[in-house]
């Protein structure tokens, strides 16, 4: 097991509110790691550390080290836009740009200055195939992405992220706004993507975490309570709190 | 009476108060427009649009006035829009919420409430005298630009604020820089709103009279402006001039010119509404 992401002694504050305290955790490469816990436990904050999306919150303060491939990504010489090309993110609500499907998927490449039409077309196709959406939209790539269903929109967002060829995918409750059928599709997609990507997913859905993740970490009130292989967490957790949460006794 | 019944009565009463309040404005406007149309409509023909001003009412036309207005509007547009939109973008997207931005914000809102004649005096001092532009189209345009800048800035900021933050997040998440995010996502998504504000501001500039009188726009200019340093007049000043004359023929001319001015303003507002609707559809 190779370590892809790592946090060392991470504390996060929003002004005086402590959102994460002393998190030490590793995330293995080419696996799906689920972050679970009740609302406000800090799991989303933790997820967003890895592509520095918390930087836009004025009151955000961090101490400790956040490492990707052994490199601290909060060092001064890190270029945030370069970092984010390597660390893709899929958000809770499908948020396609108000543009065509093609332009949505090509956007990440276009902003890198890539203009070669053939190349763009190929990458867009590959990304949509990977996101299991190609067959549904191949005839109307010029249609507005907003005209698609919620599940399709979310897969456009995933394709858009894949087109940039990151190695890490961060997913913040990617199926919470989707119906069960769309959820199944996205889950199958996640499972198929882990061969090539390191995936970290925040989810409120215990069954989902059980179905798709290899590792699970349980957060509670800013603390990392437990991190282990998913089957261990779900069948034989070491902490009482984890067991209570997973069996639905609180949270 | 029980509570529900009282509430329903209140509902009905308020409905009629509302209808009354709306109709007062509409009726007054209808009377005004009807009056103007009866007086001036028959006076409008091609000659009226293409004739120079004259002492004889039946020969006088509004060529210099509307061409002056056109010059002013176009120049004002090109001066105020880049400055206003850039300022709006800075305040909304870049400006750190601090004392300086606060100060700027308060002052911009204040500026929007300053009487237009004050802008005229400012323009007279800064553009006509200090910058030695004289009573030129350029000086007039700069003055009107000052006047409508706050409107454009506020409209720009509101349009930018209406862009869902999820779009920004998505763009940043793909490795876009701040400027790329603004240029490729935020501005296109807000362009309808910005354009609406710009057009409303411009249509206000079309109708402004006081600041241009102070800056030195003349009521009688026997030629159309050929360049930005020429003297000029505009439609509202021509109207003002005609209305103040005793002969009845001139007030007919004024009515006709008012119709033209109203058509221009309504057309501009219509364009603004069109873009707003188009923009709202696109985002939802």
Summarize the structure.
With 251 residues, chain A is α/β, with parallel strands linked by helices. In chain A, 36% of the residues lie in helices and 27% in strands. In chain A, α3 packs parallel to α6 and α4 packs across α6.
Number of domains of chain B: 2
In CATH, the homologous superfamily of the largest domain in chain B goes by the name MetI-like
Q: Could you give the count of β-strands of chain B?
A: 0
Q: Report the mean per-residue pLDDT of chain A as an integer.
A: 92
The CATH homologous superfamily name of the domain at 3-95 and 168-246 in chain A equals: P-loop containing nucleotide triphosphate hydrolases
Briefly note the structural class of the backbone of chain A. alpha/beta
* Multimeric state: heterodimer
What would you note in describing this structure?
The complex is a heterodimer of chains A (251) and B (284). With 251 residues, chain A is an alpha/beta fold. Chain A has a domain at 3-95 and 168-246: 3-Layer(aba) Sandwich (Rossmann fold), CATH 3.40.50. Chain A has helices at residues 43-49, 80-86, 101-110, 117-130, 134-137, 150-163, 180-193, 206-212, 230-235, 240-246; strands at 3-14, 17-28, 32-36, 60-68, 71-72, 87-90, 168-172, 198-202, 215-220, 223-229. In chain A, strands 6-7-8-3-9-10 form a six-stranded mixed beta sheet, sandwiched between helices. The longest helix of chain A is centred in the middle third of the chain and has 14 residues, at 117-130. The radius of gyration of chain A is 18 Å and the shape is globular. Chain B has 284 residues and is mostly helical. Chain B has two domains: 3-43; 47-283, Orthogonal Bundle (MetI-like fold), CATH 1.10.3720.10. Helix content of chain B is 77%, strand content 0%. Chain B has helices spanning 3-40, 46-50, 63-94, 99-112, 116-130, 137-161, 165-173, 178-207, 210-215, 235-243, 248-283. In chain B, helix 10 (235-243) packs antiparallel against helix 11. Chain B is globular. The chains are: A alpha/beta (251), B mainly alpha (284).
